[in-house]
Each structure stands twice: as structure tokens, then as C-alpha cells.
Amino acid sequence: MTDDLVAALRPLLRAEAFAEAPASGAEPGDLEQAVWLRLLERLDSDGPPVDPPGWLRRAVRAEARRSRRTTRHERPYEQEPAADTDRHDPERLALAAARHRALRDAVRRLPGRCPSLVEALLSPNDLTYREIAGELGISQGSLGPERSRCLGCLRRMLTPEVAARGARG
């Protein structure tokens, strides 16, 4: 049943994702993967939708709206937030080295293939998604959602450490 549903919905999902992606600021593959995940979660909890094509269209639009909201709130920094004029200060260099060590230690503790993915993203070679996907042996379309999951996990791991440091005083 699930295989038939997936096979029947695949062309429609691809078309809907390609139609919604440009306006949402997301890659079509990212939208597709997010909707497949929603479908699997739904199948696990509520069973198949009564109107699969209608459900799929609504799900793609909901994911596109979520992506637009996220993109709208993300802004690049004009400069590094902690930038200071004296970058060669020994204390600043020691603190930066400690932050980098803490980050690398946390990356190594990530589950699954997240450590290799995050290491590739942090690479000084500035690899493209295509190069990272090839290096890790995964599809380029699944790289974005996987990156989001890994960074979310990393964020959750580092939040207690960051909060503990800020509580001094």
C-alpha cells in the first residue's frame, strides 16, 4: 500500500515542489524530502490521507510557507558579531581556540553521518553541496534537510554549554 502510494504521488510531488521552490527560497529537493517525511509521519500516526493528491498539494504549500518564513527572518551579519579591532590579543586568541575545540568536540559526538557532514561543511576548502554529496555518497537533494537535522542536533548539544557560560557574574 505504501509503495503504491509513494509511486503514485512521486510525479505530482516533484511537479509541485518545482513549482513552489522559486518563491519559497528553498531547493525543490528539500521541499520534496520535507513532504515525504510529513507523509511518513502521517502514515505512522493517522494512516494514509483520504485525498492523497490534495493532501500532498497542501503539504507542499505548507512547507514552502515555512521555508519562506525561515528565509525572511535569516539575515547575514555585516561583520563577525564578536569582531574587535585587536584580533591578535592573546586572550581573544585563546578564547577563540577554546570555542573551536568545543565545537569540534561537539561535532564528533553527533550521531550517524552528521560528523562527516558537518566536517565537510566546515572544511576550509569551501566545498559545494554537489562536492559534499559526492564525498559522502548521498544525494544532493537530501543534503539540505540532513544538514538542518545535524545543525539542530548540534545546536541542542551546545545550548546547555553556551547557557552555562553566560550564567556567570
N- to C-terminal separation?
60 Å
The parts where pLDDT drops under 50 for at least 5 residues are none
Mean pLDDT, as a whole number?
Answer: 84
Give me the secondary-structure category. mainly alpha
Largest sheet: none
Shape: elongated
**Multimerization status:** single chain
What's a concise summary of this model?
The chain is mainly alpha-helical and 169 residues long. It has helices at 2-24, 28-45, 52-73, 90-108, 114-121, 129-136, 140-166.
Task: Report on the architecture of this protein.
By secondary structure, the chain is mainly α. It contains seven helices and no strands. Helix 1 crosses helix 2 (28-45), helix 1 (2-24) runs parallel beside helix 3 (52-73) and helix 5 (114-121) packs across helix 7. The chain starts with a helix and ends with a helix. The mean pLDDT is 84.
